[in-house]
Each structure stands twice: as C-alpha cells, then as structure tokens.
Amino acid sequence: MSIGYLFVNTPGIGGIVATVVIGTAAVIYFLLTRWIINGDKKEEE
Amino acid sequence: MNKAWHPKNEREEIVLSPIHAVTNNDLWLWGILAAILLAGLVSWGIQFFVTGLSATGLNRPVYWGLYITNFVFFIGLAHSGTFISAILRLAGQGWRKPLTRAAEAITLFSLPFGVTSILIDMGRPDRVLNIFIYGRFQSPLLWDITAVSLYLFSSVVFFYLSLLPDIALCRDRLTEVPAWQHRMYEILSLGWTGRNGQFERLEKALDGMAIFMTMLVITVHTVVSWVFGMTIQPGWHTALIGPFFLLGAIFSGTSAVVIVLAILRKAYHMENVLPVSLFNSLRKLLITFTLGWLYMMIAENLTTSYGNLPEEMRVLGQKTGGDFAIMFWAMWILVFFVPLLIFIFKGKDNIPWMVGATVMVNIGMWMERFIVIVPTETRPRLLYELTKGVYRPTLIEWVITASLFSGLILLYSMFTRFFPIVPLWETADSLEPEENEKPVIGFRQHKFGATSSAMLKGK
Amino acid sequence: MSKWSMVIDLDKCVACQACSIACRFENNTPVAAPDQSEMGRAIRWNDVFPLPVEGEGEYPNTKERYITRPCMHCENPPCIKVCPVGATYQDEEGIVRQNYARCIGCRLCTVGCPYTVRYFNWSAPEWVSPLSEHLNPDRVEGSGVLEGPSIRPRGVVEKCTYCIHRLKKAHEQADAEGREFRADEYVPACVQTCTGKARFFGDLDDPTSTVAQLSQKRRAFRLLEEAGTNPKTIYLQEG
Predict the structure, then answer these.
(1) What is this structure's pTM?
(2) C34 prior amide bond cis, ω within 30
(3) Which ipTM did the prediction report?
(4) Which residues of C touch A (CB under 8 A)?
C-alpha cells in the first residue's frame, strides 16, 4: 500500500485536492486584483 | 488627480451605443428566451422532484445520452474565448483585439451550462457535495471537477479584469443610464482610475493569466475526454481521444465566435469596429481546424478498421452503417465537406457564407459529441447480442437541451446591453509614440508604456 | 482472509432462471413495468441470456448457448477505479460492494463495466401486493452505509453483492454460538436455489474448497479474460 496508492484511493483526499486547488486560485486572484487596482502608489505626490 | 483617465478611442461612440437603451425588440427576444429557459427549468423540476431520470430515454446499456452530450458540447464551446484571448494573445496576433471580449463572453456564459448539464444528469444531484467530502482522485470525474471548476473560476477572473477599465469608462461616460445601472458600474469598477501604473499592472497580469489559461484549455478538454478514454470500452479507449476532443472544442468554439461576431456586427452597426478582415483571419484558422478535424477522423477510423478487432468494429459499424449511419454521414457533411468548400471558395470577404458554414459546423459538432458517446454504449463487449441498445431521447431531454442554448443566448445578449462588447481600452489609439516598449515574452509590444509618462506630463 | 468466488458449470445449467428469480426476491430488486422493461430498464443482478455462438447455422442445425451471469467481482475491477466518491469499493474478502447511501448516480461505473453487470434506479422502487408484503427484511445498514437488500432510493446504482447480507448473518450466527465461522455456511441465494446444481461458491484461497479445485479444471474459463479484469466468477465450459 504505497503512499501513491493511498493518495488516489482514499475517499476524501480527492475532495481536498479539488478544494485546495480552487481555494488557492481564489486567494491568488484576489491578491492579483488588489495588486492591479493599487497600482504603483509610490508615484503619487 | 482623482479623475480617472481613459485611453482615447475614436470608436468609442459606436461601441458604447448599444448600452444607451434597451429596445422593445430586446425585451421580446429576452422574453422568448426566458420562456424557453423556464420551460427547461420546469422540465428539470419534473425530473428532479417527481420522476427521476426515468423521464429520459436513457436505459441499459445507454446510460449516458443527451445531457452528457450537452456537457461536452458546452465545455467545448467555451474554448473559443480562451483560444482567441489567451492563445492568440501569446502569439502576438494583434488583429484579435476587437474580438477578445465577445469571444470570452461565449466562454463565460457557456461554461455554467456545461456544468449544469452534469448536475442534470446525476442520479442524486442533492449529493453533489459528496464529491468534495469523499472525492477519490483516482476517478476521472475528480480531475474533471477540479479542472472545469478552475477553468470556470479563472475565466470569470480573466474576463472581469479585461473588462475593468471599460466598466470605469461606462461609469464616467454614461451619465444618462438608470441610477441602479450607474451604481453597478461604480461598484464593479473597484475605483479604477487608469493612473498609477494600473494599466501596466493589468497588462502584466493578463499576460500571466493568458499563459495559465492556455495550459488550462489544453488540460480541461483533455480531462473531459478522459472520462470516456479511461474506461476500456471500444470506441472510447483510444489514446487519440484527448487531442480529438481538444481540436473539436477549438473548432466549434472558433465557429461560434464567427456567428456571434456577425450578429453583433449587424445588430449594433459595428461594421467599422468589426471589419471583414477579422472574419478573413478567422477563416484561415477555420480552414486549418477543418483539415485538422479530418486528420483526427482518419487517424481514428483508419486505425480502428485496419485493426479489425471485433468489439471495435461493432461500434464503428454502428456509426458507418448501423443505427447511427444517418447522423454519422450528416455530421461529415455538416462539419467537413460543405464548410470546407465554403471556407475556401466562398468565405473570403463574405460574412453571410461564413456564418452559414459555421452554423453547420456547430450543429455537426453537437452531433459528433453524440456519436462519440452513444454508439459505444449500444454495443457493450458482453451484451451486444441481446441488446438492440436503442436510445430515443424524450421531450424533457430536448426541452432541457433547448433551454441551455436559450440561456446562453439570453445571458449573452443581456450582457451586450450593459457592457461594451468590444474592449475599448485594448483597441484604443496610442496616445503618443511608444516610449517604453516592453515586449512580453518577446511576443508583444506594450502599448501603454506611455501611460505613466503621460500622467507625469500632467495629461 | 477469504477470497470469495463463484463457479458456474455451464454443462449443468439449463437456463431455467431460478437463480435470477431467487436473487430478485432475496435482494428486494425493484419490479419493472412492462414498458420500462421493454426499454431495457429491468434490473437483474443475475441475468440469464444467450451467448453468441460461432457458426450459428440455420434451422434445424442451430446452436444455442446460454449464460447465467452475476457480478464478476473482479480482482481488478474497472468500476471501482472510476467512482468519484468511493460508493463502490472492494473489501478485503474480494467482494465488490455498492453503498447506496453515498452513490451520486453519475453512472461512470455502469458505463465502465465491460460485463454490463451494473444497474441504475431510474425511478424510486415500487412493489404492489402481494410482493410488497414479502420483502426480504435483511439489511446491511449503518451510519452512511446502505448496502445489499436494503431498500435503495431513486438515482443510485446497484448490482450483485454475492449476497453480502448472508455473509454478515453467517458471521453473526457463528459469533452468537461462540464458534469459528465456516466458509460453507455462507452461500448466495442463486447458488442455494440452482435447480441443476450448477453453481458453486466458496473461498478461492482455500485449496480444499470446491471452487478452488473447480477453477483448476481444464474446462474452467473466465469471461473477457483479455480485458485484464481478472473476474472471480468462473465458468466451466460445456463438454
């Protein structure tokens, strides 16, 4: 029962992978949008 | 300094004109589309609350039918937007700029209906969360869920970010719209000012996302095909199924873009914004895709028939001469023979012919999805003798299918009445000679290097 | 651990279908109305049907061949691989199980099975009198578990379980009597009922068991061996 076998077969792990992938994307996109909107604030007088 | 800056675009008037008023024709159109959508909802309600999937024509061994066909078709349609925006962006094809939003809107609005089709097909959609609680990563369905959800999410973000400067434009230019609409622009524009290097950052982000979206496009439709390919059923279990689905998706997606563009051009008088040259560029791509589709079909069917394995030949026989022969050969005519002739001989500078061909392509591609799925099911390895596996879709299945299309068209046309369908900031004239040419990945020239310096000069 | 297996002697089978009927009653299989059955929606965990014959010939020189087919309970099942939620799984004794409580009805397992042994509940099961008064009360139920003859809801997949409830009952009986469980106490309904005494059941890992010895016979074969599924339902060829 290698770790690889357990990873793909254990119920629940797949759900965690899907959630982590989408969740990470959500966080990245939020930060990305904020970065864009904030622009290069240093340029303001 | 608080006033937002918008790049100058001489086509602004025309592009914004559809937003100024919702016409009576619109209301009629939306009403009819909404009615069809409602009929679909009612049909699904009957299926979910009353009859279960027994209301369909599905049976043993044809366990998957119209709903899964729709799923594959709508996900495939979604590849149009990503192909035009992301892939052509990376390839530095500047002619794509007026098209990007119109194409991505197809992606944005067709993906949800693809996902919905799965929920409609499930025996227990109320247990959909089980996929997250008990999900097994060995299952191709989990790969599907992950990839398609990520794709949907990323498409929304990509679309929204590309739309952002134009929402701000609407906020600032469109003063006579209803108050709620103005408020919507205010909220959605996230305080965009177009200053402080926002455009620079936006371009960088979109470049990065374009790379990611391209990888997603390839992954998503391949993974969708593997739901079939990872079984050992004849007709499905072929290494070619990934590329086959992928090409089909890009083919049907790009065809959909042609149809949509032609309608927008006519309905909103955008002959100058969406010139014939765009259609000619798409035409060249479509010729390539049509020939690519031919290649796939030959590779698949010649290999199968030459090998002559009995279980494979039974399935192929169903397609070429059996229960599905009419549909199979009609598909060849609609997807290949007629469109190729039209593209080559009639399509140049001729939008009506292009639309005719691409409508045929999409009808044929829907049939192609059906033909991949159902014939294999009618000739299972062990049961083929007993089964005269017949599938006759019921009214409920057809109504639901129709409602998916009408939902897509409804959302799309409503969108065009509230947001500019052509990206104004991306097609803007340059302010002044490019001072900061920043090539991205060596492909593209950065048009808004001028932004920061313009701001510094007090414009 | 036991490795449960079934051997079916096609020479002795007369295709009387008593096995199929016994299975339906034992496992509370829903009844299919004539129009539903016509469509191909009848559920038959054990099915009896004609097998294709090489060189069928014309009347009166025709050949017929029938097979009775429960689930193969493969050692390498294509169905459990594709289940997204683990509603179908293989236990340590080699039985491929189906949990109706978790199944989402996606039907990937049903299209994935090369033997077409899986069935789907297109509607909620119904029985009319007198059938409704004679349902098998045996249940395999627990928290988040609904298996075997338990009444299943609409929208889930089901199939032959080698009468898993009888295994459970045999274990419980042995425990109650304070003794070891014996493999020959566990026998699926079809095996028990077979009029031709064509079906055998037992532990393939026990070299003294009938199934282990029969599986070594020259006549023994498995369906679709080339598919690599390694089924544990083994047939003895006619002749």
Answers:
(1) 0.92
(2) no
(3) 0.92
(4) 84-86
